[in-house]
Amino acid sequence: MKKIFIFFLFMVFAFPYAVFADELVLVKGKGCPVCEAHFKNLKSLELNEMVCQRDESYSSKNGITRPKWEEVDLRENKEFLKKIHKFFSIGEQFGALNLIDNEKEFEKYFEGHILKYNLLTKTVVDIDNDGKPETAMLYRAPRCNTDRNSAYNIHYSRPLFVFDRSKNLIDLKKTEPLLQNPFPRNIEAKAANSLYQLYDVFFYKNQTYFDKWNVYDWTLSVYIQSEGKTKKVCTYKYKGRA
To answer: Cβ–Cβ contacts within 10 Å for residue 223, how many?
Structure first.
């Protein structure tokens, strides 16, 4: 009996994604038009599509549309890429991070890992609904997988942030409201807690929303920025069925 219990714990922590058959339910926002519309679209997706490929698999239906994302050349943006890695690792674009600061090690990591698995995309969108467009970015790092039959599962994230084109930096003021990550205390902690958080952006009735998958509680939450504040509008949860 003890061996069975230990094996069960191993399976849960080694494969924290699709261990059981799942059902998506709307737990916050019932009756809200955008939540109901998003719900209908999400239910047409498999779990792996909803978690890992929402930006690719999600159809523009039920009044919801999506921005067009443009892939950014990683080789031509290595210096900015270093800032991204630092920000979402330690919460500081100019902080010290051995793997990034050591040029030889970074080149090895860049060629052997980043180019294979990571993807940086951008779009121009009014992310905070103030009438002024921003350059929003998604950084998929690295490959995402929810298949319990896979030989291994790998750490993943897809943070959403705003790019300051004039300074070639992440715009901290505009990015902080987007960091709806676990255990928020300050912007550094919010950024560094991006692991297993996957964001996306969509439009509904001329307003911009963003959503976030959180693997720790198997929820997908929808947020909107308005008048300088971020509000959670909807929450969906995958409930396992043995």
So the answer is: 17
